[in-house]
């Protein structure tokens, strides 16, 4: 079945989609132009992810993203999206110090950017912060499994939930649900466990590297559409080759400038007053 059936996607549509067996599509977006296109394509959820650190700013990890940087991108995406629900990541350091800090950051995003929800990483250990943010009236998406902001603590981009990690993953999922999140991202976990958790939870699961048994899927758009020409993870399916297309286009432009064929007369102004 198609994704969420709504003219404007709200948090309540996520539970409805799960009940009706409709799968939810999600993509990252960091700017107005892609948000407009993905929204028009019917993507249900646009995430202004702190993966911007990697695919926008060219940084090694997501750890250096700031609230100010996230807020600029979130404002652009929220203003452009007409239908999709727009969610922003709480960046590293903006919610772990205390529950008060978590609420303050979430409230700031809601006041300043126009997003409809925030996402934060962590399970059992973040349940208190999620509860406080939800109590403040801010919808929350949880994020468990591989959590990039903890990549040093986790020892790199390592698959989570295997073996003894299975029970921890379940406990994290239940804690996030119990705390009031309306959805939870499961990143880089075995498909079988993600499907089990999806069946156990009332709230929606959105997978990235979590197999086909989750309620929805999310990908980083530069990976999915080939703008990222570097190595991508096994779970990425490439739907376009924008990197190669852009390379060709840029080469053609450079050649046209070099040989003087750009601009031509139609691309130039004449002095109509003469
Ligand atoms: O920052 C991000 O893009 C994310 C998704 C990969 C889920 O958190």
From TrEMBL:
InterPro entries per record: Pantoate_hydroxy_MeTrfase, Pyrv/PenolPyrv_kinase-like_dom, Pyrv_kinase-like_dom_sf
Swiss-Prot/TrEMBL cofactor(s): Mg(2+)
Molecular function (Gene Ontology), one example: methyltransferase activity
Domain of life: Bacteria
Positions annotated to bind 3-methyl-2-oxobutanoate: 50-51, 89, 119
Pathway: Cofactor biosynthesis; (R)-pantothenate biosynthesis; (R)-pantoate from 3-methyl-2-oxobutanoate: step 1/2
Main location: cytoplasm
Record has Ribosomal protein as a keyword: no
Matching CDD domains: KPHMT-like
Reactions accelerated catalytically: (6R)-5,10-methylene-5,6,7,8-tetrahydrofolate + 3-methyl-2-oxobutanoate + H2O = 2-dehydropantoate + (6S)-5,6,7,8-tetrahydrofolate
Keywords (A to Z) from UniProt: Cytoplasm, Magnesium, Metal-binding, Methyltransferase, Pantothenate biosynthesis, Transferase
Any one GO CC term of the record: cytoplasm
Residues where Mg(2+) binds: 50, 89, 121
Cofactor note as given: Binds 1 Mg(2+) ion per subunit.
Any one GO BP annotation for this protein: methylation
Protein role: Catalyzes the reversible reaction in which hydroxymethyl group from 5,10-methylenetetrahydrofolate is transferred onto alpha-ketoisovalerate to form ketopantoate.
Similarity field: Belongs to the PanB family.
Protein name: 3-methyl-2-oxobutanoate hydroxymethyltransferase
Organism: Corynebacterium maris DSM 45190
Gene from which this protein is expressed: panB
């Amino acid at each position: 079945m198609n994704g969420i059936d709504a003219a404007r996607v709200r948090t309540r549509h996520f539970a409805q989609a799960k009940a009706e067996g409709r799968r939810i599509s999600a993509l990252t977006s960091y700017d107005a132009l892609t948000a407009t296109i993905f929204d028009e394509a019917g993507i249900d959820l646009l995430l202004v992810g702190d993966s911007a650190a990697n695919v926008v700013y060219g940084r090694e990890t997501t750890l250096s993203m700031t609230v100010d940087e996230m807020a600029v991108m979130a404002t652009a995406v929220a203003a452009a999206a007409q239908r999709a629900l727009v969610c922003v990541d709480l960046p590293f350091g903006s919610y772990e110090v205390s529950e008060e800090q978590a609420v303050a950051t979430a409230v700031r995003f809601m006041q300043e950017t126009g997003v409809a929800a925030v996402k934060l990483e962590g399970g059992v250990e973040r349940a208190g912060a999620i509860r406080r943010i939800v109590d403040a009236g801010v919808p929350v998406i949880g994020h468990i499994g591989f959590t990039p902001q903890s990549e040093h603590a986790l020892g790199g981009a390592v698959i989570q939930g295997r073996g003894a990690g299975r029970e921890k993953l379940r406990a994290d999922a239940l804690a996030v649900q119990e705390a009031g999140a309306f959805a939870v991202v499961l990143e880089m976990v075995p498909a079988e466990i993600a499907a089990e958790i999806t069946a156990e939870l009332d709230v929606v699961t959105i997978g990235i590297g979590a197999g086909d048994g989750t309620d929805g899927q999310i990908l980083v758009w530069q990976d999915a559409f080939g703008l990222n020409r570097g190595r991508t993870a096994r779970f990425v399916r490439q739907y376009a080759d924008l990197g190669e297309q852009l390379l060709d286009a840029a080469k053609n432009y450079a050649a046209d400038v070099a040989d003087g064929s750009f601009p031509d007369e139609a691309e130039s102004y004449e002095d109509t007053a003469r």
